[in-house]
Design a protein that fits this description.
Layout: E1 2-7, H1 13-24, E2 28-30, H2 31-40, H3 44-53, H4 61-72, E3 81-84, H5 90-102, E4 109-114, H6 117-125, E5 127-129, E6 136-138, H7 166-180, H8 182-189, E7 193-197, H9 206-218
Parallel strand pairs: 1-3, 1-4, 2-3, 4-7
Antiparallel strand pairs: 5-6
The protein binds adenosine monophosphate (AMP).
Adenosine monophosphate binds next to helix 2 and helix 3.
Length: about 220
């Protein structure tokens, strides 16, 4: 099954996708993580992508789309994948449809995670990630057991460069509103969208949403 995690930055897409990956065995494909690995390894793709990522802008499709297509063509994606961070525009969604159609596949389920905007900025500023296994933590809501150290692999946690600057965060949220949020309507019309709220205000965490989603997948 091919799943898409939709939702603004800081709603917990990566966390939920990680839980779904463990439960289903379908790989989590995070375009942001692929870019960040390329940036830290200083590959040609990473150097180009960083020009956009450091400013909070979208990386152009000429770079992003073939990168996703190559990843989806790998053997571990033949039965399914959990896309986290792609598509981010209607154009990317159309390109995704074409790439899956070539394989006789389609988008089966789109999970729209929602969180009140006032919570989102605090969540992003408090986000810490493991550069090695990509696990995500939050200093207040979901801290690691030993402060600053990944529970899974013992690596020192870091703050993403693009999470340090409040202006870049606001820019990314503005791009989400303008370019990515139309995908909610796009996938709703196709009848594949479900919405899950994740918010401290209603005491509902990513792991609670994941339980719902797993039940939904089992019933499909
Ligand atoms: P994320 O980890 O999903 O927040 O992505 C980090 C950054 O990578 C974004 O702010 C974009 O600059 C870039 N990026 C990730 N996914 C895409 C995409 N599908 N299209 C264009 N740029 C992307």
């Amino acid at each position: 099954m091919y799943l898409i995690m939709l939702g603004a930055q800081g709603t917990g897409k990566g966390t939920v996708a990680g839980i779904l990956q463990k439960e289903t065995g379908w790989p989590q494909i995070s375009t942001g993580d692929i870019f960040r690995s390329n940036i830290s390894e200083k590959t040609e793709l990473g150097i180009k992508a960083n020009e956009y990522i450091s400013k909070g802008q979208l990386v152009p499709d000429e770079i992003t789309v073939p990168m996703v297509e190559n990843r989806l063509n790998e053997e571990d994606c033949k039965d399914g994948a959990i896309l986290d961070g792609f598509p981010r525009t209607v154009e990317q969604a159309e390109k995704l449809e074409k790439m899956l159609a070539k394989k006789g596949k389609k988008v089966d389920l789109v999970i729209n995670l929602t969180t009140p905007r006032d919570e989102i900025i605090t969540r992003i500023l408090n986000r810490r990630v493991c550069p090695k296994c990509k696990a995500t933590y939050n200093l207040t809501m979901h801290p690691s057991k030993v402060p600053g150290v990944c529970d899974n692999c013992g690596t020192e946690l870091v703050q993403r460069e693009d999470d340090k600057d409040e202006n870049a965060i606001k820019q990314r949220l503005a791009i989400y509103d303008e370019k990515t949020s139309p995908l909610i309507d796009y996938y709703n019309k196709k009848g594949v969208l479900i919405t899950e709220e994740v918010s401290q205000k209603i005491n509902r965490l990513g792991k609670d949403a994941a339980v719902d989603i797993i039940n939904r997948i089992k019933g499909m």
